Structures are given as C-alpha cells and as structure tokens.
Amino acid sequence: MFSLSEGCGCVSFRGGRRNRSLGDDSSSCRSSEIEQDIPKKLSKRVLNGQCTMKALAPFLRFWKKDDVSMTKAERTMKAAILIQQWYRRYLARMEVRRRYTWTIFQSIEYAGEQDQVKLYNFFNALLSHMRDTSGRPSSERTSRTASVLEQVFSEESDEGGGVDETAPPKASRGPDIDFPLQRKDIDLLIEAFRKKKHRLHPKHVAQILKEATQMLKRLPNINVATTSISSQITICGDLHGKLDDLLVIFHKNGLPSPENPYIFNGDFVDRGKKSLEVLLLLLACMLAFPGGVYLNRGNHEDLIMNSRYGFIREVHQKYRHNAERLLKLIEGVYRWLPLGTIINNRVFVVHGGISDTTDLDMVRGLDRDKYVSLLRPPVAEGAPGAEQIDKVEWKQVFDILWSDPQSTGGCVANALRGAGTYFGPDVTVSFLRKNKLSFIVRSHECKPGGYEILHNGNVITIFSASNYYELGSNKGAYLKLCGNSLERQFVQYTAAVSRTRRLTFRQRVGLVESSAMRELHNQIIMARRSLEATFRSMDVDQSGLISVGDWCFAMEETTHLGLPWRMLKDKLVRTDPETRLVRYMDTFDLNANKIGRKADTQIVVETLYKNKRSLEAIFKILDKDNSGYITLEEFSEACQLLGKYMPNPMTQEQLVDICRLMDINKDGLVDLNEFLESFRLAEKNLREEENEIAELQAT
Q: Checking DSSP bridges between strand 347-349 and strand 439-442, what pairing results, if any?
C-alpha cells in the first residue's frame, strides 16, 4: 500500500521498499507545479486522503495531458484512483448479489413459517373436535405422559438403531456422567459431542430432561437476572442446532457460572444437525451451574415447528427405539421454559419482541405450561367468557415469541411470517416508558453481522448461529452487558473459520448465491402448476414468450416471496435476442450451468414429494395415537369433520374406498410412505389432466 506524505506529492510505500522523508527537497515529484494547478482547499483534501471523484475533477483535467509529460507521482495517483474506482464498483456488485441472496433466503424462510401457521390454523378444528381413539379422557392421556418418567430406556447403537436384546448386556460406550451434574460431567459431554464419540445413553438423556423440567417448574414466567454478583452477563441469540457456535462461545467467553452468567434467548433447535446436543448441553449447564444459565423460550421450542424443521427427525435418527418417549420429555421442557428475562430491572430480554398490547403483568400471571404449542391455542372450558380471556393470553405469548421490529411507526400484523406483529419505534418507547425499562434485547432474525441496533438504540437483535444459510453467509454474535451501567460489548465470530478463510470474498458470495438459487428453484417447482397456468394465460399467441414485466408479475403473484424478480431474471430465464421477450418455460429448467446446482443436493424423497413437509405435518395430525400409522377410523373422523366445512361431503363408503386405495400393501393401515405416495400419484394424474385440457384449448 501507499499513502501521500503531507506537504508534497511523494508516495510513501508502507512495505518498506521506498520511503521518502517528509519535506524531502530532492523529490522529483515537482509538488510546487501540482499545487499551482489545484486550488488550495482541494489540495488540502487530496493530500489528506478525503477526496471524492467530484472533488478531483479539476485534478483529473490536469491529467489529460500526455502521459509522457506526467510525473511519476501523478501517474501513480491516477492509477491508484482508477484502481479504487474499479474496486468500489466490484464491491458494489458483490453487495448487490449478497443483498438479493439474503432476500431470497429470508423470504423463503418466512414463507415456510407462514405456511406452517396457516396449515395449523386450518387443522386446529381437527385437534379440537376429534375424540381420542382410545376413548380415554384427556386426564388419562396426561397420566400416560407422566408415566414416561418411570419407563426404562433401552440401549441404542451409535448408528441410531437398536441393540440386540438377546445379546449379553454391554457396558455403555458413551460418556458416563453422574447426577447431580458437576463441572467434570459438563466437560465429558462437551468432549463427547465435539469429537462425535459414542452417543449419550438414552437413560442419561431422559434424566437430564426430567431434572431440567423439575428445575424449570420452579422458575417464574419472566426470569430475574442481575449483574450485582457477576458484574457482567452474556446474552446469546438463536443457535438452531449449531453446536460449533455454542462451543466457540464457551471457548471465547468461558463456561457458565454464577460469576459468568448467560441468557440463551430461545430457538436452540431445528435446522442444524446437532439440535439435540445443543439442547442437552444447555440444560446440563443449567443443572450444573445454578444461577449461571437462564433459558428463554423461542418460537421453535414447539413440537409442531420441530416436525417441519427437522428436530423430530433428528431425535428419531439418533434414538430410534426411544424417540417417542424422549420427545414427550422434551415437550415437558418446552412447556416450562420461561418466556423472558429482565436484567437489573432495566433490560427486557425476549425471543421475538412486543406489540402495542403487550402487558408484562399479564405475562407474569398466566399458566405457561398449558401452551404446549403456540400453534395450538388452548380451548378454555367452564365459565362463559373464559375462551376470550384465553385468546387474549395466547396472543400475549404469541406476540412476544413471534414479533419483529420495523423502522416505521405503529404496530401491524406480521404478514411475512403469518404470526406476531411488526412493532415500530413509537411502540417500543411506549412499552419501555410504561414498564420503566431502558431497552429490549431480542433474537428471532438472522443478521449478516450477527447483531443489529434499531429504534435509536432501544432494540437490539442478537443472532448467534453463524453460517446460518450457507457457509460464509453471516457471522454469529453475542452481547455482554457489563457493570451496573450495563455497558454494551458485541462479540462477533464465525464457526468453521478454517474453511471460510480458504475462500475469497467472491467465492463466499458465489457459494451463498448458489445455495439461495437452489432454494428458490425448489419453491418455483412447488408452484409450477400455478405458474404455468399464469404464463399460458399471458401468452395469447402460445409462442412461449411473454414480456419481462408480465413474467415478473406472474412470479410475484404466484409465489408471494417479495423478491426483486427483474434483477433475478438473468439467473432464471433467457430472453429472445430479437424481441427481448422472456422464454417463460426456462423458469422451470434451472440447469447446472446457471446456478451450479449439484445433482446430489436433494434426497430422492424431497424431489419426489414436493409438499413433503406439509404432508408430514398433516399425517401427524391424523395419526392421533402417534403409532406411525393412520387407521380407517382416524381417517374417517378427520374427513367427516372436514366435510362440515367443505361442500359435497363424501359418504362412508367413499371414505373406506379412499383409505383402501392409500393402503398400498393392504395391511389395513396407512403409513407415511403410502400417504405421500398417494398424494404424488394424485398430483401426477391431476397434472396430466391439466396438460390434456391445455392442449385441447390450444388446438
């Protein structure tokens, strides 16, 4: 690098090859000539390195003379400014790519959450009105759940399968921890999880979950934390199953203790591959270091969300023979997690945010354990009007776990997520003034730098899962509040540093962009039928071409992703060189040359069943006894209930025929694969019929 020395136009090379002293009279740069042609004010700005292209216009006109007559310093500065101009343009292009990539990821993520909320709003009728198959009252189901605590948990193999029960018993190869948990047990767990050694025995997993539930039951709805003993407190945001990030935090900031307390602000699980390990390690730290760990509930501490975003699948893979019993215990942990934490009576730490109706007194007084899932609001029984009270309470919890801040004033429904609110700076100020608080710390949103400060410093977002969307997509961060003044210190980090260091900035952006385009491709394929119908309606001549404006309108009208489609056009489709119209069928043909898509990035099931996640959720609702199969009675009851809200209800004979058709192996039960295959075949037939109709209309 080089810089201008004050007082002349000499170049000072920091590398050490050439370094001229200030005011060297023997300089050949003829600084007096330069200063004669440049106004004094401009000269001062140039020599101080504060110049812009506009400010340098007179200087650039001076350079238009022959390069032969230019001095070496003049040529060097001209080259430096040209390089700087090129580099700024390059960075601007990279920033544009990064921003639309980020928009793609966020839009798809929020669209998935919105679909989940809509799905469960529709099927809430099933959950509320369908009787239990066993005919037992809900109190018996509760006692059956409680009996899980006394059940014996069988050994699992390290591959996730069961062990041979006929073989003689073997000593457990996983970490041997003792209860009550101490520091040495935490070290054993970290070592086992970090080095991917033998899996923790399910009985130890169950014991951690049971003891954690008992401890959580004794806590208030809103935790109370203080820095009077520790002089500091650390707040961590979403981890989403990223064990590497949690270990980086502990490595940089130390293990929890009463002198080094932590607040983990929800969303411990889902999306990451080590969600169970993250949850167990956090609960174990809470047990081993009383007063050193505070846990807040997030919107993903919810088994209905887990069924869509991977945590339930992970538990089944790792503990195949004990999964259902462990999930019952995990559900108990979720129910008793506190909803927020207040530090020094000044800082409100909550997962999502607030709304204009948030009432902390009401939140403190509600029964949080009845909210098994926020997507399943509890139905009140008893006195008239109780249901309305429950809905008000339910909205209180929903808003603080699902809301997001906005830059504009007011409070509106969060249409992007389909749940919670968007709250503005005025809502924040009113809430803080009413509750005599200084600021809010929340999580719930991924940020490129791991944190963001909004509403004039009154709202801080902390997100602790680095590489959330893709390797190099974002940093993680945690916030330290120090002393009685609660001075803010943000610490950023990136897990898997060795892998990201090997990538250039361009490679990182390209990697994230490719991943985003793969996700977008999946969304487009899911909406293909509707998109094709819209495209064909716009293509009056059936030429296969439509205008760019029509293509952008159709993409947004069908997908509702809110993306800059005109900017993404060149990534998704080709245009006719003569007419400049879009070849709209290219939208569904995102080949490897366009987005670098690898052939093996999707498993066969995900490709075969495009609505797999939604269908899995529906299957779980229909399978009321969690047996893994849908019986004829379960299917009939669900269809009869839906018939009340849908025209042309089917007869009992038709229902039996449909269920028999779904039962491919004719064993009298419908498992998940048969359920998915039935929908795939129905989708295929529907698509063939639509193509035939389209061909007939065209001819």
A: parallel
Say if CB 649 and CB 640 are below 8 A apart. Answer: yes
Per-residue b or e along 627-654, where b marks 16 or more CB atoms closer than 10 Å to that residue's CB: eebbbbebbbbbbebeeeeeeeebeeee
Which of 438, 447, 324, 350 is closest to 402 using CA atoms?
350
**Measuring CA to CA, which residue among 361, 366, 357, 356 is closest to residue 342?**
361
Question: 89 Cβ partners below 8 Å, 6+ apart?
Answer: none
Active-site residue set? 300
What are φ and ψ of residue 103, in 5° steps? Answer: -60, -40
Q: Give the Cα-Cα-Cα angle 669, 674, 680 (nearest 5 degrees).
A: 150
Q: For 562, which DSSP code?
A: -
Euclidean distance between CA atoms 13 and 2, whole angstroms: 5
Encode pLDDT of 520-577 as tens digits: 887 788 788 888 888 988 988 888 899 989 999 988 888 878 888 887 888 888 888 8
Q: What pLDDT, in 10s, does the model give residues 34-91?
A: 444 444 444 444 444 445 555 555 555 555 545 556 788 888 888 888 888 888 887 7
Secondary element (H or E) of residue 37: helix 31-37
Backbone φ and ψ of 477, nearest 5°: -155, 155
